[in-house]
């Protein structure tokens, strides 16, 4: 059985990616930090497709826990899918914070760094022995890294996401000898729980963002999840080292 591990799969893009991966035949392991009920929703959605999914807790900001998580993941896969192999990894956990230069704190910088860049790097390192040769890795990045449409206040967030874009290319090169493909997906404004459900709390933000999008609306998690699942699949077997923008033409 081919297993996809979706980090941050309890809501939003991660949840959509997990369900889309299950639709393509993967068994799914999703992680959550403080939203176990969302992980349960993901599991139910996968089961409705006739698939199998399990959930494990993980704090991507705590790199010291990654070794223990890798062992627990190995045990979970062996118990749930005997003989199953990790064929896909999605590094999707994220946080969203903004601050102008004069307001950025060391604590905020470190928090964004731990979750958005350090976490994906060292978690991938910890899980590498579990990944099958020929597996696929997808990192979730952001259109905030684009040279056009820069929004004040997101300098640290965008810098970390930009680092992840570069890391994606280097991992693609380093892991190519094992046939492991590494790509990233760059969403534009998308209705997720990021920023404490910002679009739900501030619906007045939606119309201006939609107006900047060529296709005339903000993204839905399913829009991005489908792209991630495609990159995990054999249909994308000749794509590696790329950052794929999935934004509906944001700031086009």
**Number of strand elements:** 7
Estimate what percentage of residues fall within beta strands: 15-25%
Shape: globular
Order of helices and strands: EHEHEHEHEHEHHHE
Provide the helix percentage. 40-55%
Q: Calculate the mean pLDDT score and round it.
A: 95
Radius of gyration computed on alpha carbons: 17 Å
CATH topology label: Rossmann fold
- Report the total helices: 8
Let me know the largest β-sheet. 7 strands, parallel
Strand order of the largest sheet: 3-2-1-4-5-6-7
Low-confidence stretches: none
Structural class of the helices, strands and pairings? alpha/beta
How many domains? 1
CATH homology-level superfamily = NAD(P)-binding Rossmann-like Domain
* Main CATH class: Alpha Beta
The CATH architecture term is 3-Layer(aba) Sandwich
Please give the alpha-carbon distance between the first and last residues: 41 Å
Keywords: Oxidoreductase
Organism: Jiangella alkaliphila
Family: Belongs to the short-chain dehydrogenases/reductases (SDR) family.
Pfam family, one: adh_short_C2
